[in-house]
């Protein structure tokens, strides 16, 4: 069976009150349309077409890497009109699946079950039972329980409005039949639109069976029309992800205060994650890792036994085995920490490698540096890596000790086991094993008197 998936994404989304087209709003850092695409791209033997219109340039530009054909619907005259634009894009024998760019959490299993119901004699329709079906098209059934038509809210009689079975809009139809019915659509209805839903009544007239199936939960088929619905679906999505992690052996102190906006490429066991942690991009987290409250980690690798205390930012960094970070530490891109490294509070590291068991525990900036093993960098140390135009590297060799409040003016090398006296400004290479300091000699002046306040 060859499948063509049509994703309708031309609508404006007026109620988002936004300059951005609705389908580009995001759940977990991925646009709504991307979610639908990612799910449908897992269907076998499938080609994907996106009907777009509102915010055309921005939508295509933002999602230019998707493997799809783009079909522009210049005027949005209804869901039926939208699908009509695609009629020359699929062949008669295709199964055509219709999805919506603003219904992001639909599950692959639901779609697979749906498309099994398509044949030359049947349409597959996804419906949902709702406590309140306001706004939805209603599924009208006859005395035998067979679907006879879908009626839109605005066209429904008072009796039809009481129906609780709603149309999700999602359906699958054989290509030939779809083309045939689409060519007969009119717009004589309350909204003056070409309704895709009208093909159901046509199919019934042609003695087809409408086979309905349901999603596993209502959330799967909820669309986003405003930011309240967007936030609801964000939480639904995050809850699902949190549950998956907990099932895999992660302790989340509060799953409602955890956000995964991306993927975990490799996940250890006995990871403990405190509240308000955000994981973004692609991360890997090893065994026995503890992540403290209010920590943000982006595109990073965290090895086994790492402890990250509260309020850290770790961005495009690698944290080696057993290292200890924070509280309040910031690891910027291209930071690579080897094993057992300690990075303490108010320390910023950028584009630097720090070898085994080195410590930078307080109030420091280390940028563009290569730091050896067993180095101790005292509080308030700064690598002066930038002259306002160019960046330069600082090299600190194994076993060096940098006294507190030192500035290392790059390019500069601190030799193996060298000691830098506290408060030094180092502008020249400092030899191995020696004490180097640049500091005004301390003097004490005897007999000195503090000034006293003069009487006016
Ligand atoms: C549609 C269904 C309704 C169903 C509801 C579920 C029809 C006539 N009605 O109604 O039965 O209960 O979805 O949410 O199909 N779109 C286009 N081009 C258009 C019009 C719409 O691409 O010309 C896209 C929109 O961007 C949106 C989707 O189709 O993603 C649904 O359109 P919308 O106007 O929201 O349909 P509803 O009136 O909600
Ligand atoms: Ca809608």
Description:
The protein has 456 residues and is an alpha/beta fold. The protein folds into 2 domains: 3-221, Spore Coat Polysaccharide Biosynthesis Protein SpsA, Chain A (Alpha-Beta Complex); 227-436, 3 Solenoid (UDP N-Acetylglucosamine Acyltransferase, domain 1). The strands form 5 sheets. The protein has a 23-stranded parallel β-sheet that branches. A 7-stranded mixed β-sheet has the order 5-4-1-6-10-7-11. It has a 3-stranded parallel β-sheet with strand order 30-33-36, with no helix packed on it. The protein starts with a strand and ends in a 20-residue tail after the last strand. The mean pLDDT is 97. It binds uridine-diphosphate-N-acetylglucosamine and calcium ion (CA).
């Amino acid at each position: 069976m060859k499948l063509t998936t049509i994703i309708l994404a031309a609508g404006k989304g007026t109620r988002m009150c936004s300059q951005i087209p609705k389908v580009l709003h995001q759940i977990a850092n991925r646009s709504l349309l991307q979610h639908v695409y990612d799910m449908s791209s897992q269907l076998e033997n499938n080609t994907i077409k996106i009907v777009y219109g509102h915010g055309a340039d921005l939508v295509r530009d933002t999602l230019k890497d998707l493997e799809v054909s783009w079909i522009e619907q210049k005027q949005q005259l209804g869901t039926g009109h939208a699908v009509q634009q695609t009629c020359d894009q699929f062949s008669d024998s295709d199964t055509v699946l219709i999805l919506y760019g603003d219904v992001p959490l639909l599950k692959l299993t639901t779609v697979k079950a749906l498309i099994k119901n398509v044949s030359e004699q049947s349409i597959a329709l996804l419906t949902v039972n709702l406590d309140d079906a306001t706004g939805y098209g209603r599924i009208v059934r006859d005395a035998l329980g067979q679907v006879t038509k879908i009626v839109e809210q605005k066209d429904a009689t008072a009796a039809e409005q009481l129906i609780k079975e709603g149309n999700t809009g999602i359906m699958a139809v054989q290509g030939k039949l779809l083309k045939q019915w689409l060519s007969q659509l009119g717009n004589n209805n309350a909204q003056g639109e070409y309704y895709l839903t009208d093909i159901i009544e046509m199919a019934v007239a042609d003695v087809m069976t409408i086979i309905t199936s349901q999603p596993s939960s209502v959330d799967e088929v909820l669309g986003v029309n405003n930011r309240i619905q967007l936030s609801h679906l964000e939480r639904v999505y995050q809850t699902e992800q949190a549950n998956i992690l907990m099932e895999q052996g992660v302790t989340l102190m509060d799953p409602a205060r955890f956000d995964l906006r991306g993927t975990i490429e490799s996940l250890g066991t006995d990871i403990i994650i405190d509240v308000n942690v955000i994981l973004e991009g692609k991360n890997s987290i090893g065994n026995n890792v503890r992540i403290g409250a209010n920590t943000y980690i982006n595109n990073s690798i965290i090895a086994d036994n790492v402890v990250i205390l509260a309020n850290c930012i770790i961005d495009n960094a690698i944290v080696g085995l057993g290292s200890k970070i924070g509280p309040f530490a910031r690891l910027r891109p291209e930071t690579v920490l080897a094993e057992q490294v300690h990075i303490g509070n108010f320390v910023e590291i950028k584009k630097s490698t720090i070898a085994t068991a080195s410590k930078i525990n307080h109030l420091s900036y280390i940028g563009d540096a290569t730091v050896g093993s067993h180095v101790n960098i005292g509080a308030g140390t700064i690598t002066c890596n930038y002259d306002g135009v160019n960046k330069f590297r600082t090299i600190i060799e194994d076993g060096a000790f940098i006294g507190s409040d030192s500035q290392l003016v790059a390019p500069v090398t601190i030799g193996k086991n060298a000691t830098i006296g506290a408060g030094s400004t180092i502008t020249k290479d400092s030899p191995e094993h020696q004490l180097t300091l640049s500091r005004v000699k301390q003097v004490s002046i005897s007999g000195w008197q503090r000034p006293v306040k003069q009487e006016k």
